[in-house]
Each structure stands twice: as structure tokens, then as C-alpha cells.
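Need Myo-inositol 2-dehydrogenase 1's 3D structure for a figure. Predict it.
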Amino acid sequence: MTLNIGMFGAGRIGIVHARSIAGNNRSKLVAVTDLVPQAAHSLASEYDAAPMSADEILADSNIDAIVIASSTNTHVDLIEAGINAGKAVFCEKPVDLDLSRAKACLDIVAGQDRPVMIGFNRRFDPNFTTLKSAFDAGEVGKGELLSITSFDPAPPPLDYVKVSGGLFCDMAIHDFDMACWLFDAVPETVNATGACLIDPEIGKAGDIDTAVITLRFDDGRIATIRNSRRAAYGYDQRLELLGERGLLSAGNVLENTVIKSTLDGINSAKPEYFFLERYMRSYGIGWASFVDAVLDGKAIPVSVSDGVNALAIAEAAGLSLAQGRAVELDPILKGVV
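Structure prediction for Myo-inositol 2-dehydrogenase 1:
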């Protein structure tokens, strides 16, 4: 059976997902919609799909699943619309910028049986999955300290910053999900510090561009996350997990594997420039897991609940930054803060 897909959003991330759909022999992109008709037509024509309206996609009984790659403020409404139309749903992160809306969406999803997956693609990076497999197998014993480095090569456009939800909801949210996934738990407290060191205009827009977040789990384990909107040498994505019997590390993926050893020193290539280069494989692997869940009944690897947890951590980080203190996560998840 082939899974017929309707795509919502024909921008940069929609194009990435279209490649993953086309690269899987059990899925086919059949329809595309976008607020910019020309963008929908362009993407649809590349994959022999049809440009349609959102309502047409939802009403088409030949479309089995939808991919939500549109702006974040559309995610919850489209998840609910997709469910109501009887379709499986793959939605880009985050679920929403508003935690209460995301939690309400979780309640709706919990009451139906169609698969709904959130697109935290880094879980599917082969290096990170290998690290987690080694950790889960007990190769370094109990995990004690997790260190996540995530530096972008350059800040995003200011217009994007203003609608992104900020560094915690847009950028660090990937790392919050990674910490929960690797430790198989949500943190007890969140402590964030940050500054605007790169572009004063980001600060004027109410955001930061540099941050360190510490997550403390109820058994004492600690995760530290370092974020920056600028690394002059490229996209820096590294993990270290210290356990009682050793250390697991996942380094950067480089532009090439050539090492130059001369009298002047030893040099290697820079990290791949940005997420489109660094994580393209992970998008395809993640998509395959969604197809397997829909067609074969396998478990959804990233749930709406996972998305809500990451968003709650982002909200706690924002509160911690504003108040200069560690913030307990449980009251935020329960909506009593």
C-alpha cells in the first residue's frame, strides 16, 4: 500500500519533507497547499502532485495523511482538522507557541486512534540514535551528566525572530526534546541564563541569541544545553553523555573527511553549514518511522505529549530567565503557574 500525502506549507521545511516523502517507496505526495499559490504550484509540479486548497485536501478521501509544514500558529488547528477528517498527521515542531493550546490539542489527540507525530527530527540522526542505543544498553552505566551543544552558523532574519516564539521555543526546543529522549524523563527544574551578544536588533525584538540552560532531573541527573545563534565555523551539533562507567560522545558531521597533516599543523574540514545539510538523513529516517506507524501499526516515536513536554520546558526556561531563578516544571505542565 502507498500512503497518499497532502502537504500544508510549501516553504523551506515543506520542501524538505517533500523530498523525504518522495524518497520513501511507500509514500507519495499527491497534493500541496500554501497561502502563496505560486509556492504550492511550484512544489506540486516538482512531484507530480496537485495544488489544492486546505479544505480540498481535508475532504479528499484518497489522501491518507497530512504533513503540516506551515507556520506554527496553524499547527493546532490543522492537527485537529486532520484528525476530524480521519487522516494521520505529521506535524512540524512546535505543536504551538501557547502551552495551553498545545495541551488542549493533546486532549483531543488522546481521544482518537489516528497516528499523530511531531517532527523532532534530531532523534533520528544516526549518530544520536547510536549513542542512545549504547546508553540504553548500559555501556556506560547510569547516566549522570548530559551536555548538548547547539550553535547556529548565523542568526535568522529579524522578521523570522519576531514570529518564531524566541530562542527557547524555536531553537532550544530541539535540545529540550533530546534531553528528555536520552534520559527517558522530563526534568524536575529548569534554570536558564541568556543574553543578546550577537545582534542588538534581536534584543530589541524581545529575544536573546545566546543561552545556557540547566535541566535537573528528580534523581539528580543534570543536562546542560548551550545555545548560540552564531558560530563562525559552521553548524555545531554535539552531544556528550557521562555515565558512571564512561563517556559517550557524538561529534559534528564535517563537510568532508579529509585530514591535512603538514609541517604547518593538522587540519580538517568545518562542520556542515546548517540543518538542511546536517540533518537531511534524519528527516528521511523520521519520515519512514511515520509511514511504518501508519501502514504497519508500529508505535509513533514522537508523540504530541513529547511536543507538549518540550514546549513546557521552553516556557519554564523563559520564566527562569525573566526571574533569575530555577523553575519547577511540574506546576507549568499542570497549568498552575
